């Protein structure tokens, strides 16, 4: 049974529900890319699909609009896959369990992927509607945006004819984004050595943090579970002798991690001391994060005496030093644009295996040299500790365009429809507009979107009424551009 068939606009939510039924986390987008190609074939539209899975679907102008400049509608196919503890969904194989409550659509126990499935759904609805008035359209759906804008970077734009690009990857209705930060993925790799050990095997879990998008919500000062677990273990190291088996937290570099688990061994006689230490630290964390993360918890489970493999004391100490000393969060705010984070980083992924620890950051800045400097700091810290450093997925910022016919047109249409001016802003999150404007000379870009809340977390929800208003607005803009 369809969960969204009663919602309006019906075609938009029909396609959104279809997309949500297809697994489409970053790196796993072939099926959703193929779905878009099948859609184009059924609609009789010209479409191309490249090796990266990017899809471009073209729809010719409606009668009377043939001389208008081509408009690119753009969104990305991949989603951030986060889920609550105990949620049985396998993101590699399973679709999402959609639900509605009041004005919201959400996915039970997981992220919704409204970022950016709603963009694809809106574009498909536009492509399928034969009655609309619009210029020639090029709908561009990219892959792996959430892990470094990789699809947009790989896309050959030489065949695109678009003069204007409307990106539908923003999360607040009535806000037009016209500039964004650049970013990159930074990975610190520390080699690990292991030895046999014996003791009470314990699992320490830091949970209950709110998390969120590391670009959109980094200024909210939500706790980072990876950083806080490193802080806790560094303090524990000074009080109780333990051996560290594993340390894991976070699934995406651009999502503020909500849960981190450490497995360790202690002496039997230290079991009660560890519990008392944990209880005290939980009080500390609850006090420090009472406003930003009121649900934070630090729990401990003990399994009894076990034998196993654990990191050597030196390996564990080097890893904890890295976690304790690495920069994280907002580094600098803009002094030119009010309320804009200029430079930040987020330790989004922490995992250990039999050979190494992988500590992965999402680095962002509106100033390229500041982005480079953060990378250098992480590299120097990692190499000093005997590890290696890698950068990937670097993408440019998107500079503000002083003269923008697209922006002026969209502002005029918004005022006419809603009787008020939209906000025109720059943001700290990365958008693909920077890559497209760098590849297509003179391209005029604006990013919009409906109201989305708590994206990149299992609390993500999409406003139904906002989707209807933004879709109506998009149709009016297309008509006006003709």
The helix fraction, in percent, is 25-40%
Give the strand order, joined by hyphens, for the main sheet: 1-2-6-3-7-21
Largest sheet: 6 strands, mixed
Q: Low-confidence spans: pLDDT under 50, at least 5 residues? A: none
- Beta-strand fraction estimate: 25-35%
The secondary-structure class comes to alpha+beta
Q: Report the C-alpha radius of gyration, rounded.
A: 24 Å
Shape: elongated
State the end-to-end CA separation.
Answer: 39 Å
> Number of helix segments?
11
Mean pLDDT: 96
In total, the number of strands is: 23
Structure description:
With 482 residues, the protein is of the alpha+beta class. It is built from 11 helices and 23 strands. The radius of gyration is 24 Å and the shape is elongated. The two termini are 39 Å apart. The mean pLDDT is 96.
Helix-strand blueprint:
Layout: H1 10-20, H2 30-43, E1 46-49, E2 55-59, E3 71-76, E4 98-101, E5 104-107, H3 114-128, E6 137-142, H4 150-154, E7 164-167, E8 175-180, E9 182-191, E10 194-207, E11 212-213, H5 225-237, E12 242-249, E13 255-256, E14 260-266, H6 271-288, E15 297-311, H7 313-325, E16 329-333, E17 341-352, E18 356-365, H8 368-384, E19 388-395, H9 405-418, E20 423-427, H10 433-439, E21 444-447, E22 452-453, E23 461-463, H11 464-481
Parallel strand pairs: 3-6, 3-7, 7-21, 8-20
Antiparallel strand pairs: 1-2, 2-6, 4-5, 5-23, 9-18, 9-19, 10-14, 10-15, 11-13, 12-14, 16-17, 17-18, 22-23
